[in-house]
Write a structure and sequence with these properties.
single chain, about 180 residues, mainly alpha, 1 helix
């Protein structure tokens, strides 16, 4: 009886072990499939992430290139501005010097013009004085001449009157 029970227990144990093995194989198969799907999904996700990273890297490279270009352009602009500032300073200095020279020339011309005007005014004044003196002399002569003419007219009137009286006397004598 004990032997039979032991055989039955051994058979049950073998069956139990076999069932356990089957279950373990099923679980292993399911686990393997799940792991394979997970690995495939992970690989896909990793590939997508890698592609996105590559695109981001490309964008970063483009941005870096743009930044380098912008920096270069900015440096060029700074150099251009500095050069323009230097040219402006030189032009301003030249302009100041030119204005100063112009002022000096204008002062010289004004001084010469003033001296010339003074000489001309003096000469004109002398000429005007001479002309005034001549005019005064001419006026005196004209007064003398006018006085002579008045005297001559008065004498002529006297002569006419005397002649008329003589004519009257002659007419009376003739009668």
């Amino acid at each position: 009886s004990a032997e039979e029970e032991s055989e039955e227990e051994a058979e049950d144990s073998v069956e139990s072990v076999a069932e356990g093995v089957d279950e373990s194989e099923d679980e292993a198969e399911e686990s393997t499939e799940s792991a394979a799907e997970s690995a495939a999904n992970t690989a896909d996700e990793s590939a997508d992430e890698a592609e996105e990273s590559a695109e981001t890297a490309d964008e970063s490279v483009f941005e870096a290139t743009d930044l380098v270009q912008m920096e270069s352009t900015a440096e060029d602009s700074v150099e251009s501005a500095e050069s323009a500032e230097e040219e402006s300073e030189e032009e301003a200095e030249d302009s100041v010097e030119s204005v100063a020279e112009g002022v000096d020339e204008s002062e010289d011309e004004a001084e010469e013009s003033t001296e010339s005007a003074a000489e001309s005014a003096a000469n004109t004044a002398d000429e005007s004085a001479d002309e005034a003196e001549e005019s005064a002399e001419t006026a005196d002569e004209s007064v003398f001449e006018a006085t002579d003419l008045v005297q001559m007219e008065s004498t002529a009137e006297d002569s006419v009157e005397s002649t008329a009286e003589s004519v009257d006397e002659s007419e009376d004598e003739a009668e």
